[in-house]
Specification:
Homodimer, may be a subunit of the RNA degradosome. Its cofactor is Ca(2+); Zn(2+). InterPro entries: Metallo-B-lactamas (IPR001279), RibonucZ/Hydroxyglut_hydro (IPR036866), RMMBL (IPR011108), RNase_J (IPR004613), RNase_J_2 (IPR042173), RNase_J_b_CASP (IPR055132), RNase_J_bac (IPR030854), RNase_J_C (IPR041636). It comes from Candidatus Gottesmanbacteria bacterium GW2011_GWA1_43_11. The protein is of the alpha/beta class. The chain folds into three domains: 286 residues, Metallo-beta-lactamase, Chain A (4-Layer Sandwich); 150 residues, Rossmann fold, CATH 3.40.50.10710; 89 residues, Ubiquitin-like (UB roll). The protein contains 15 helices and 27 strands. Strands 1-21-20-2-3-4-6-7-8 form a nine-stranded mixed sheet. Strands 9-10-11-12-13-19 form a six-stranded mixed sheet. Strand 10 and strand 11 form a beta hairpin.
């Protein structure tokens, strides 16, 4: 559902997120080309997952809300993907089945990761490889990929030429002059776009609060080397499973110390296999061990590269920390390296993981207590200034950060001489329209929801389910069971009351007795057969809830249940 604010005509391009502006994760952007106010073509950029916050009990993932696109399916021309991190491609298996078949383009490694991900779900979509030497024309959009350094090889920005001007889609980047793969950012391409004239720069803003340049990824290898020298047992190295550059550095150190390498965790195993097959990860087959071989080798000959650096409860590293992994058991001489900073909002999960690993006997090294264990893949203030200098945009739209990052980016741009009003910070769901004749402005507000995934499926967890889960976690549950003889639809016997996480029932006889009186009172009001059980249940729930709050100051989840006997 959307609320129209303005109507425009002639050639226009509208840009808005279905995730990614005001959020660090869940990246998905819509570019719309319109003629005389009518939608003609849609280009989609990225389709990533997000992580649940602490209030989303039982939620595994959050994905973009693609419902806006459902009645515009015939206008979608293509998907283009910037790089292979999950916050940019992880939602493809959940979003693609809702949409018609259309081309998907990505650079070589990104295409490999994305194809492996959707193949897991039985989706047969083919992803076409877009080389950095090529260009792509999709309707009114001419797209040129630009190689940029990030925390994964083959990361791309896109120069998107349209009839009204050039948009530079500057998703996650930094300017690493000494990257591990020796493939630095294509500064010449970026400058060439700036010389043509960039109407709007959509720029990564996550590092806008950090001064200077972001450090080179290459410094990590020396730190890993230092940790391995000190480790007398197994070394467990945890990082983002798509961070192939860092995994290669870990592999290099392991080989230097004659340690066998095990990839543990589904995503780590899958991504390392794809990267090796495509030539982005170099490791001799003889150096790799699997499953039961891990148990047979001495600990000081093992280097385990494991998934779960963000503290995900179902990850391989979390299972190792809990002592539940089949092949990897922690011992006192072991070292665990967490080579990743927590995603904003995920700090508590990571700290709990560190505690669990420490309790398991391991020495844990992580970025909060040891420098140079992690280097950001996002540009700091000087990187962002360089991008601004090269592209020379008329307008700027900070992306990939929270609101505070967007404001910090705006301040940085103003310091460089840009007008404050040229840095666009849209509100939630606001659609920006660009044309050759007027300033960009908000023309529509798209209503999107948090689409949450758990074991039940996609979108089955809504606000009511979350509310009940929060109540269960904080207040407990009271189940009131009323026996009813089905053949005559009459109550038979006394109600039974069961509580979990609320009060200890054996010590709360007076409270239980009063609850039973409330239930019986409502049942007596209905003489003879009872047909409107919904009405009865609602009244019981409301009155018991009021009584318990008055007596205990708590509001547990009340669940009246009719038991047929």
């Amino acid at each position: 559902m959307s609320h129209k604010i303005f109507v425009h005509d002639k050639q226009t391009v509208r840009i808005f997120p279905l995730g990614g502006i005001g959020n660090v994760t869940k990246n998905m952007y819509v570019y719309e080309y319109r003629l005389d106010g009518q939608l003609v073509d849609i280009l989609l950029v990225d389709c990533g997952i997000g992580f649940p916050d602490e209030t989303m009990y039982g939620v595994d993932l959050v994905i973009p809300d693609a419902s806006y696109l459902l009645n515009k399916k015939d206008k979608i021309r293509a998907f283009i993907l910037t790089h292979g991190h999950d916050d940019h491609i992880g939602a493809l298996p959940y979003v693609l089945p809702k949409l018609p078949s259309f081309p998907i383009y990505a650079t070589k490694l990104t295409a490999g990761f994305a194809e492996a991900k959707i193949r897991e779900f039985g989706i047969g979509s083919k992803i076409s490889v877009l080389p950095f030497t090529g260009t792509l024309t999709i309707g009114p959009f001419k797209i040129t990929p630009v190689h940029v350094t990030h925390s994964i090889p083959d990361a791309a920005n896109f120069v998107i030429e349209t009839p009204i001007g050039i948009f530079y889609h500057g998703s996650d980047f930094k300017f690493d002059l000494t990257p591990p793969d020796n493939f630095p950012s294509e500064l010449g391409k970026i400058a060439a776009a700036g010389e043509k004239g960039v109407l709007c720069l959509l720029s990564d803003s996550l590092g806008s609060e950090r001064s200077g340049y972001t450090l080179s990824e290459r410094i990590i290898e020396e730190t890993i080397e230092s940790e391995v020298r000190k480790c007398g047992g197994k070394l467990l190295f945890a990082t983002q499973s798509s961070n192939i550059s860092r995994i290669q550095q870990a592999v290099n150190v392991a080989l230097q110390h004659n340690r066998k390498i095990a990839f543990v965790g589904r995503s780590m195993d899958q991504n390392s296999e794809v990267a090796r097959r495509l030539g982005y990860l170099s490791i001799p087959e003889s150096a790799i061990v699997h499953d039961k071989q891990i148990l047979r080798l001495p600990d000081n000959l093992l280097f385990i590269i494991v998934a779960g650096s963000q503290g995900q409860t179902d990850s391989a590293l979390a299972r190792i920390a809990r002592g539940e992994h089949k092949f990897v058991k922690l011992r006192d001489a072991d070292t665990v390296i967490l080579s990743a900073d927590p995603i904003p909002g995920n700090e508590n999960a990571v700290h709990e993981l560190v505690d669990a690993l420490t309790q398991g006997g391991a020495r844990v090294s992580y970025s909060e207590v040891m420098e140079d264990l992690h280097v950001s893949g996002h540009g700091s203030q000087q990187d962002l200034r360089l991008m601004l200098s090269l592209t020379k945009p008329k307008f700027m739209l900070p992306i990939g950060g929270t609101y505070r990052h967007m404001v910090a980016y705006q301040k940085l741009a103003v310091e460089m001489g840009h007008d404050r009003s040229s840095v666009l910070i849209p509100g939630e769901g606001e659609v920006l329209e660009f044309s050759a004749t007027h300033r960009p402005r908000v023309v529509e507000r798209i209503e999107t929801e948090q689409i949450m995934l758990d074991g039940l499926g996609v979108g089955d967890v809504g606000a009511i389910v979350l509310r009940d889960r929060r109540t269960l976690a904080s207040e407990g549950i009271v189940v009131i069971m009323v026996p009813v003889e089905k053949s005559i639809n009459r109550v038979r016997g006394e109600p039974d009351i069961v509580s979990r996480g609320f009060v200890y029932m054996k010590d709360s006889g007076a409270i239980v007795a009063e609850m039973k009186q409330i239930v019986n009172r409502h049942l007596r009001l209905k003489k003879g057969k009872i047909f409107d059980w919904h009405f009865i249940r609602r009244n019981i729930e409301e009155e018991v809830s009021r009584f318990l709050f008055k007596e205990t100051g708590r509001k547990p989840l009340i669940v009246p249940v009719v038991i047929e006997v």
